[in-house]
Amino acid sequence: WMWLRYRLWEDDTETSIVSAVSQPAGACLMVPRAVFEQVQGFDVRFELFYEDVDLCKRIKAAGYRIVIDPEARVVHRGSTSLQRERPLRIKQLYYQSGSLFFAIHHGRRSALGYRIIFVANELVKIAIRAAMLPFYGRSRRSLRQNIIDSLCFVRFAISGQGVRFDEASSE
Q: Do residues 61 and 112 make contact, with C-beta atoms less than 8 angstroms apart?
């Protein structure tokens, strides 16, 4: 679900030429220092996710284009910051950052819509996993743990824990 937020091409642009994009993957993001400083760098309110999306949105708002150069090569060693975290905590961080991003850039109502859709998605996953339990035999334990994690996340989300709108957009 995390990779779905990356929409690399604004349209069906030919990928063999330098092309404008909304936002590249954060792992291959290079920004001139002057531009980075002009938009005041990464927003520290984003603990782990959406910081790159927010930065690109602010860079575009400052009048700059964001492009992908197909000649550039990046070696990404892969999600080392995520390896320390449990899957439930990763989901919580993603949810918090997404809520904050929508509140800042699209208003509190959009953030609420994001939160409702995210929680509804978890509830659907719980129902599907619960229906699959009788068919899982020996691997039931991991499926049960997924269900428990999803239930814990829903409880976390409904409680409003960690959602910080006080400094975000006022709508």
A: no
